[in-house]
Design a protein that fits this description.
The protein has 154 residues and is α/β, with parallel strands linked by helices. Helices cover 42% and strands 15% of the residues. The chain is built from six helices and six strands; from the N terminus they run βαβαβαβαβαβα. The longest helix has 16 residues, at 72-87. The two termini are 16 Å apart.
């Protein structure tokens, strides 16, 4: 049996360190733009590189949330950010916008992409569509019950 991954939020470096210290297998965080984690301080590019190095030296993963519903100016800015995020060594990007997913897979075809809970995936056809677009993980809608999740998984 495969154990579940304990994934915790990390709004800044001290919270990332605490999450890892207390057993997180992976953390999710956001950069200064493109993420829905606006209540957190979030990470500059140098801070993201530092956080990723800290996590990786401890055998942990870092997922960067790029899950905002992007406006046109953000769509134009995303291609400039992607190589910087990749250079920081993040293990996956969390996308919530189909346009973002398309850009990520075009510019970083080997980057794993997880679909954000904000996308509201609630059925197996939606999950299949995201997989067809290149996503490797889908975070399902919060409103689902276990029987519905089991059906989607099957």
């Amino acid at each position: 049996m495969r154990l579940p991954e304990l994934l915790c939020p990390a709004g800044d470096l001290s919270r990332l360190k605490a999450a890892i210290h207390f057993g997180a297998d992976a953390v999710y965080l956001a950069g200064e733009t493109m993420g829905m984690r606006s209540a957190s301080r979030n990470f500059t590019i140098p801070q993201l590189a530092q956080a990723t190095e800290y996590a990786h030296t401890r055998g942990k993963k870092v997922y960067l949330a790029c899950n905002a519903m992007l406006r046109n100016d953000q769509v134009d800015a995303l291609p400039k950010l992607l190589p910087q995020w990749a250079d920081c060594g993040v293990d996956a990007l969390i996308a919530g916008d189909l346009g973002a997913l398309r850009i990520i897979k075009r510019l970083l075809p080997d980057m794993p992409v997880h679909i954000s809970v904000q996308t509201g995936l609630a059925n197996y056809e939606a999950v299949r569509a995201m997989a067809d677009f290149g996503a490797c993980r889908a975070i399902l809608s919060r409103e689902l019950i276990l029987d519905e999740i089991a059906t989607i998984r099957a």
